[in-house]
Write a structure and sequence with these properties.
The chain is α/β, with parallel strands linked by helices. It is 44% helix and 15% strand. The chain has a single domain (6-259), classed as Aldolase class I (TIM Barrel). Helix 1 (18-34) packs across helix 2 (50-62), helix 1 (18-34) packs across helix 11 (246-253) and helix 7 packs parallel to helix 8 (186-204). Bound molecules: 2-phosphoglycolic acid. 2-phosphoglycolic acid binds at residues 11, 173, 178-179, 217-220, 238-242. 2-phosphoglycolic acid (PGA) is lined by residues 11, 173, 178-179, 217-220, 238-242.
Length: 261
């Protein structure tokens, strides 16, 4: 089995201006440095809003930080008359390595359906940016379909009809667990992540499934992260609220400390 490097992602959502973003990344990098964090065993990626990306890129570059940079969205188009959109061309130019696609807040408030998510995934592949494809069931879907059906279906839909699949990450985030303080149990998270991996293997082959990182997200904190990451099926976490606090987020990045206890 391929060794998958843990992926610790901080989705800032619509929080922090660029100065606050710089301060947060500086504090995060210092805290992780003090703790001798091993980035080769747990990658740390921040996903600021668009207006902060250039500032954070400059900081990472100037201070040679090992924190990586992601964006929260990407246009399905590459350029042209698409007011308000941000293209993969522009993101790539700012050294953006990852992009969130299909976050439940985009699906819910911006009507992004599976076709939009697929098109944005294609845009990310075109520009050599790794899509972090977000999937998850609502509370109602949990009632009617259980926990795995919707995330599996959404993941397969995002991965359909690409000439070649680039590297991608999948984040399983039950909608009812996002920002609510309610978490899936580690067992349910592991079981859904494992079912997503099996479905990817069936559709795209064992080799791709084996190297793909599958994350859990939804009310993850330093105090509960180890429970999720002790499973071999969960390769990292996508963190919202708790990523806005450098101490808390670095505690999450250093989950291995808890595992060793
Ligand atoms: P949360 O958000 O950690 O605040 O629940 C997770 C996410 O939406 O990615």
């Amino acid at each position: 089995m391929t060794k998958r490097v843990a992926f610790i992602a901080g989705n800032w959502k619509m929080n922090l201006d660029h100065q606050q973003g710089i301060a947060l990344v500086q504090k995060l990098a210092w805290t992780l440095k003090d703790a001798a964090h091993d980035y080769s065993s747990a990658e740390v990626v921040v996903f600021p809003g668009f207006t902060s990306i250039r500032s954070i890129q400059t900081l990472i570059d100037a201070d040679k930080l090992e924190v990586r940079l992601g964006a929260q969205d990407i246009s399905a188009q590459d350029s042209g008359a698409f007011t308000g959109e941000v293209s993969g061309v522009a993101l790539k130019k700012l050294d953006v390595e990852y992009v969130l696609i299909g976050h439940s807040e985009r699906r819910q408030y911006h009507n992004e359906d599976d076709a939009v998510v697929q098109a944005k995934t294609a845009a990310a592949f075109r520009h050599g940016i790794v899509p972090v494809i977000c999937v998850g069931e609502t509370a109602e879907e949990l009632e009617t379909e259980g926990s795995a059906a919707v995330p599996v279906r959404q993941a397969l839909a995002a991965l359909k009809n690409h000439e070649t699949l680039g590297d991608f990450v999948v984040a399983y985030e039950p909608v009812w667990a996002i920002g609510t303080g309610q978490v899936a149990t580690p067992e349910v998270a592991a079981s859904v992540c494992s079912k997503i991996r099996v479905a990817i293997a069936e559709e795209h082959g064992a080799e791709i499934a084996d190297r793909t990182r599958i994350l859990y997200g939804g009310s993850v904190k330093a105090a509960n992260v180890a429970g999720f990451l002790k499973s071999v099926d969960v390769d990292g976490v996508l963190v919202g609220g708790a990523s806005l606090d450098a101490e808390e987020f670095s505690g999450i990045a250093r989950f291995q400390k808890h595992l060793a206890l």
